[in-house]
Amino acid sequence: MGRLRRTFWIALAFWLAAGPARPEKPDLWFPVGEKLFYKINWGVLLVGNAVVWTEWIRENDRDLIAIRLTIRTTAVMDVIYPVNDFVESIVVPETFLPLRFMRNASEGRYRLHEVTEFNHAKRTATWKHLLKDKTEDFKIEADTRDILSFMFYARSKKFEPGTNYLFQVMADEKIYELDVQTLKMERFFLSNYGWVRSLKLEPVSKFNGLFVRTGRAFMWVSDDSRRLCTKATVAVPVARVNAYLKRVEGPGSDFWVKPDDFKDYDKAREKEDAENDDKD
């Protein structure tokens, strides 16, 4: 009897220490823990690098997703026009709606440190400019997302060539309409991946902010289940700024994480199609 009593109290102690079981994290259309590396060219000159990554975080006893982006210029470009930007969106995985958006930007002499907190239940948001101690409340829609969380949300959509898609995004403490025009499928060469096939998109908007639209901008999204941004370009005075996907790190064993195992993109796509057919 004494041994049984001791076993009971030991088991109870372990249960109390562990706490109640957490609900399972939902399956998403991208692997959390993914890390994307981009090089940024101005014409033929390498001027910067960008990294986009996701990770699970624990906040207020909730499992949330942090989406983070850094953009930094090279040492040569730092002499001319240094850029050091950090952007973060904290997202509720079940709805993929943002709780908080933060941007800390240093671009030449320009400085910005802003935080936007979302209350989707009340359909309001509060924007704060931390450097100027300025606050503003504004209304949002039920599915309003900031530009960073929207970019990941858009990866859940299968865009069809020759179609227009309308979305609303938050930028500059306002809600803007974003018209995504899909153009055609194209193939181009990426140094670590060879020839890849991607759908060309033209996002047309009226806002400044994370991506300042000084000319026509285009994005290319890979024609596979990851739907990665493989290339982006924007026209600026004198030349074009292009961002190219360099490599992908994180969970998974597909073409993007282990390109040497698949040899080329088309073979990887054939394997993915065959696996999807087997599931069906």
Describe the structure.
With 280 residues, the protein is an alpha+beta fold. The protein has one domain (33-279): YmcC-like fold, CATH 2.40.360. Helix content is 18%, strand content 50%. The protein has 5 helices and 15 strands. The protein has helices spanning 2-18, 75-80, 147-153, 259-262, 265-279, and strands at 35-42, 45-59, 62-73, 83-92, 97-107, 110-119, 124-129, 134-139, 145-146, 164-171, 174-190, 194-204, 217-222, 229-235, 240-249. Strands 8-7-6-5-4-3-2-1-15-14-13-12-11-10-9 form a 15-stranded mixed sheet.
Count of discrete domains: 1
* CATH architecture tag: Beta Barrel
Give start-end ranges of low-pLDDT stretches: 209-213
Q: For this structure, what is the CATH class? A: Mainly Beta
Radius of gyration of CA atoms, rounded to a whole number: 22 Å
The assembly state of the depicted protein chains is single chain
Helix content: 10-25%
Number of strands: 15
Q: Please report which band the strand proportion falls in: under 5%, 5-15%, 15-25%, 25-35%, 35-45% or over 45%.
A: over 45%
Counted by DSSP, the helix tally is 5
General shape = globular
What does the average pLDDT come to? Answer: 88
Strand order of the largest sheet: 8-7-6-5-4-3-2-1-15-14-13-12-11-10-9
Question: Which structural class should the secondary elements be placed in?
Answer: alpha+beta
Separation, N- and C-terminal Cα atoms: 56 Å
User: What is the CATH topology assignment?
Assistant: YmcC-like fold
User: What is the string of SSEs from the N terminus onward?
Assistant: HEEEHEEEEEEHEEEEEEHH
Main sheet attributes: strand count, strand direction, barrel closure: 15 strands, mixed
